[in-house]
From TrEMBL:
CDD domains: cupin_pirin_C, cupin_pirin_N. Residues 204-311 form the Pirin C-terminal domain. It comes from Phytohabitans flavus. The lineage of its organism: Bacteria, Bacillati, Actinomycetota, Actinomycetes, Micromonosporales. This is Short-chain dehydrogenase. The keyword Metal-binding applies.
């Protein structure tokens, strides 16, 4: 998992050493294994939030781990043009390349460690697809897409697009240098990530070396979700075993504790984690397909607006793809 790495983590800023006697570490409330499925034109995903109540995810809605898959020539796939309204999508690429284009003029190419942050707000159309040269050659692809809810007062905000290069992430390590922490959004111990958020959240990609431990300060007013991208370890005060494709939902507290197993699989030599948390919005959620609103009536209006062309127009110059243009509804 390349993402962003450094030659020597010991040159990075270090987290403080927490006092176990006075720090309230979070216990694991729920541990789930993500089921596998397919998205868009048929690329494999793990549905990381499946089975978790929205009240425990709030302010998040949905998380797909895309891949990890090594495509043969001609196999790479993306999504067709489709609409969104009422939330933000955060697409983080660990391995491979993805092109994005939207009806608001946003777009670009992201690769190892880059993030595309699209605020759908009042409505937008977009497409995500591998570039043509990757379709021809095949290759490794691995990434994540996280859906972040917007509060009622901001659901109809103007669409916005952020292109965040991996090198912009804040990098830090643990007191013993056993972890690489990449802060993508929000802040960790005063180290700010580059992502600008409507909803107060923190997102970090953490790599723990075999046998290493992480005591991560975490805002007590945020929820805390730890998803295992690869590897094996233990989470929470009780040391619950976790492995690739599992999500640990934590209870209240002011710090997270994770340790990596001494022995890892040959394919995943370290424990890789995607850690998320945010301030709960605590509003009703009406979610169907590509729309996340507060009421059923608002969902109906979103579909009517899409069908009437009020969510945007597909640009004449498009990213090539192999699918149709109808939106997914699940």
């Amino acid at each position: 998992m390349p993402a962003i790495t450094v030659d020597d983590v010991l040159v990075l800023p270090r987290l403080p050493k927490l006092d176990a006697a006075t720090t309230e570490y979070r216990a694991v409330r729920r541990l789930i294994t993500a089921p596998s499925g397919f998205e868009g034109e048929g690329f494999p995903v793990r549905r990381a939030f499946a089975g978790v109540p929205l009240t425990e995810l709030d302010p998040f809605i949905h998380l797909d781990q895309m891949g990890e898959v090594d495509y043969a020539p001609g196999e790479p796939k993306g999504t067709p043009w489709h609409p969104h309204r009422g939330f933000e999508t955060v697409t983080y690429i660990i391995d491979g390349i993805f092109d994005h284009q939207d009806s608001n003029g946003g777009g670009g190419t992201i690769t190892n460690g880059d993030t595309q942050w699209m605020t759908a707000g009042s409505g937008i159309l977009h497409i995500e697809a591998p570039p043509e040269h990757l379709v021809v050659s095949g290759g490794l692809f691995h990434g994540l897409q996280l859906w972040v809810n917007l509060p009622r007062a901001k659901k109809m905000s103007p669409p916005r697009y952020q292109d965040i290069r991996g090198r912009e992430a804040s990098l830090l390590t643990t007191p013993d240098g056993g972890a690489l922490i990449r802060v993508i959004a929000g802040e960790v111990d005063g180290h700010q990530g580059p992502g600008t958020t409507h909803t107060p959240i923190t997102i970090a990609h953490v790599t723990l070396q075999p046998g290493a431990a992480l005591d991560l300060p975490w805002r007590s007013d945020y929820n805390a979700l730890v998803y295992v991208l690869g590897g094996r370890g233990k989470v929470g005060t009780e040391g619950r075993p976790v492995h690739t494709g599992q999500l640990a939902v934590h209870g209240p507290g002011e710090a997270l504790r994770v340790t990596a197993d001494e022995r890892q699989d040959a394919h995943t030599p370290a424990l890789d984690l995607y850690i998320m948390g945010g301030e709960p919005i605590r509003e009703p959620v009406a979610h169907y397909g590509p729309f996340v609103m507060n009421t059923r009536e608002e969902l109906v209006r979103a579909f009517e607006d899409y069908q009437a062309g009020r969510l945007g127009v597909i640009p004449a110059k498009r990213v090539p793809h192999s699918g149709g243009e109808e939106p997914p509804v699940s």
